[in-house]
Design brief:
- The protein has 180 residues and is an alpha+beta fold.
- The protein has a single domain (2-178), classed as Beta Barrel (Porin).
- It is 15% helix and 61% strand.
- It is built from 1 helix and 8 strands.
- An 8-stranded antiparallel beta barrel has the order 1-2-3-4-5-6-7-8.
- Strand 2 (56-69) and strand 3 form a beta hairpin.
- The radius of gyration is 17 Å and the shape is elongated.
- The termini are far apart.
Length: 180
C-alpha cells in the first residue's frame, strides 16, 4: 500500500514540476528566437540496459520520446521506455530536457548534432514470483548525451548513452522524425 501511495505522489509531483517548467520556459522564451526553432520531433529508441547487481545484468530496451522546442537548442517532452527481463519488466516514464550543443541554421537542425539530455519521472518494476505478480514504483532519473545525424529531409539517426536510477547504464540507437 505504501508503494502505491508513494508512486501516486511521485507521479503528481512530476506532473506539477514538468508543467511548472514548461510554463516558466514559455514565459521567458524570446519570441524572435521562435522563428529559428526546429519543429517538434519524435524519436524511437532500441538499446541495451545494464543494471548493477552482483555484476552487470543485461536487458533490452524499446522506447520513444517527443521533443518540443522551447528555444532553438532547448527541447522538452515525455519519454517512455520498456525494459524486458526474464521474469520481470520495467516501465520508465520521464519528462526530459534536451540541449542541442549546436544551434540550428535557418530553423533546421545541423547535419550532425551532439546533445545532452536529463529527465526525471517514474520507474516501475513488475516481477513475477510463482503465480503472483508484484509491482513496485519509485522515482527515476536519467542523464547523458549523444549525437544525431540528419540522413534525409526530416529523418535522423543517432546514438546516446545515459546513466540513471535504478542504477543502470543505457545505450540506445535512435531513429527520429522532425514533424515540421
Amino acid at each position: 500500500m505504501v508503494t502505491m501511495i508513494s508512486a501516486s505522489i511521485v507521479r503528481h509531483l512530476m506532473k506539477v514540476a514538468i508543467g511548472a517548467f514548461a510554463l516558466l520556459a514559455a514565459l521567458i522564451a524570446d519570441p524572435a528566437a521562435a522563428q529559428d526553432r526546429p519543429g517538434p520531433a519524435v524519436d524511437l529508441a532500441v538499446g541495451w540496459v545494464g543494471f548493477a547487481d552482483d555484476g552487470i545484468v543485461s536487458e533490452g530496451l524499446v522506447g520513444g520520446a517527443v521533443r518540443l522546442y522551447l528555444l532553438p537548442r532547448i527541447s522538452v517532452g515525455p519519454e517512455i521506455a520498456y525494459i524486458a527481463g526474464p521474469n520481470h519488466s520495467h516501465l520508465v516514464i520521464t519528462g526530459d530536457v534536451t540541449c542541442d550543443l549546436l544551434s540550428p541554421t535557418n530553423g533546421r537542425p545541423r547535419r550532425v548534432n551532439p546533445f545532452v539530455v536529463a529527465g526525471g519521472g517514474l520507474f516501475q518494476t513488475r516481477q513475477r514470483f510463482f503465480n503472483e505478480t508484484f509491482t513496485s514504483s519509485e522515482g527515476a532519473f536519467t542523464a547523458g548525451g549523444g549525437v544525431t545525424a540528419l540522413v534525409g529531409d526530416r529523418v535522423t539517426i543517432g546514438v546516446d548513452a545515459r546513466v540513471g536510477w535504478e542504477p543502470h547504464l543505457r545505450i540506445n540507437g535512435l531513429v527520429g522524425l522532425q514533424l515540421r
